[in-house]
Design goal:
five-stranded parallel sheet; 44% helix; alpha/beta; Rossmann fold; 14 helices
């Protein structure tokens, strides 16, 4: 239980710090933290001006770690991201110049504006935490997290992320517009200056790595394993789904619900944890049939129906085999 308390304390410090800049998005800040602790990556998707970049930068500034922003454009080359071997005339030898990918937290801004060739550079980085250039593999430091943004409305001059790339993201998050009250608070807070300029780190890299090593102790009963897998398998047989969730997706769901349960102060997973994580973890991992793609948020609707159809484990089954 002490691991859960420590993880909760770290999460609360980050949440309060990001909340100094971002208003009314506590659940989304929690989801970002879930991705950070479970060594995952996040795709922020929404229309321009909703605070995607600001949220990513606030999260990065809350951790005392290295941060790099990459503005993805059609003319961005793979070496602009990964780095390049260049010839040093003074020394008469080749040297490696590190690209911006060599940082703890990466903001990949407007990722769908880069060509597929450049996008593919992130595949190895996101999955294996390493970069291979000219036959030499270099490891990336822990923690390593990519927060990518994209505009779902504008299609001209963009290159949609392929399924293999989408599957590398642990979560896909839509920010949405603020409420009237939140909008007023945003105007007041940003009236004189941007509060992110005064944001200071509240946790260290060592604390994040410690939390990353702790969340796996959160207990998951056999019944909860079956519950999660029933949801996964249902996506593979649903009539509106052309391509269901892969085994990588099921592993991603497990990691996410373990961290989320710890954030709630519990050392075991409940069905509510699963329900909270199903849409952000799975919505971008299912490929809908052609007839269903025309409807907005259809993936979330399909997942809601699937969850409703699956039998929920009883309370005594949640802690079966769990030693308090």
């Amino acid at each position: 239980m002490t691991e859960v308390v420590k993880l909760q304390e770290i999460a609360q410090k980050v949440k309060e710090n990001v909340g100094k800049v971002i208003i009314g998005k506590d659940d989304i800040i929690d989801q970002l933290f879930v991705a950070l602790i479970s060594s995952g990556h996040v795709l922020l998707e929404d229309v321009p001006g909703t605070g995607k970049t600001l949220l990513a930068k606030s999260m990065a500034k809350s951790v005392d770690s290295s941060f790099k922003r990459i503005q993805f454009t059609p003319d961005l080359l793979p070496t602009d991201v990964s780095g390049i071997n260049f010839y040093n005339q003074k020394r008469g030898e080749f040297e490696f110049r590190h690209g911006p990918i060599f940082a703890n937290m990466i903001l990949a801004d407007e990722i769908n504006r880069a060509t597929p060739r450049t996008q593919s550079v992130l595949l190895e980085c996101m999955e294996e935490r390493q970069v291979t250039i000219d036959g030499v593999t270099r490891q990336l430091d822990r923690p390593f997290m990519v927060i990518a943004t994209q505009n779902p409305v504008e299609n001209q001059g963009t290159f949609p992320l392929p399924e293999a790339q989408l599957d590398r993201f642990l979560l896909k998050i839509n920010l949405g517009y603020p409420t009237t009250e939140e909008g007023i608070e945003i105007l007041k807070r940003f009236k004189e200056r941007n509060p992110i300029e005064d944001l200071q780190p509240v946790v260290t890299v060592e604390e994040i790595i410690l939390a990353q090593n702790m969340y796996s102790t959160v207990f998951v009963s056999d019944e909860m394993f079956s519950y999660m897998l029933s949801i996964i398998e249902k996506t593979r047989s649903h009539p509106l789904v052309k391509l269901g969730v892969s085994p990588r997706g099921s592993q991603a769901l497990l990691k996410a619900v373990q961290v989320y349960a710890a954030l709630q102060g519990r050392s075991y997973v409940t069905p509510d944890d699963v329900k909270s994580m199903v849409k952000p973890v799975l919505s971008h991992r299912i490929l809908l049939s052609q007839s269903a793609r025309t409807r907005e948020n259809q993936s979330d609707i399909v997942l809601n129906k699937i969850v409703e159809e699956i039998t929920v484990p009883t309370e005594d089954q949640l802690v079966k085999g769990f030693e308090r």
